[in-house]
Amino acid sequence: MRDDSLRVGVLSENGQAEIVDQDRLCYEVVLRSKGAYGIES
């Protein structure tokens, strides 16, 4: 069975997005693409 739960440290299948923090309301995600990165919440 596959575990699709969201938690800190989970990477997307292509490795471009990683969950780096969470609280009760949102997740903080680092997005990496072509040498650039951004942080979204």
Task: Please give a handful of descriptors for the protein shown.
single chain, 41 residues, mainly beta, three-stranded antiparallel sheet, 0% helix, 44% strand, flat
Number of strands: 3
Share of residues in strands? 35-45%
Mean pLDDT: 85
Order of helices and strands: EEE
Radius of gyration: 11 Å
Uncertain spans: none
Number of helices: 0
Task: Give structural notes.
By secondary structure, this protein is mainly β. It has one domain. It is flat.
SSE blueprint:
Elements: E1 17-22, E2 27-33, E3 36-40
Antiparallel strand pairs: 1-2, 2-3
Briefly characterize the structure.
The chain is an all-beta fold and 41 residues long. It is built from no helices and 3 strands.
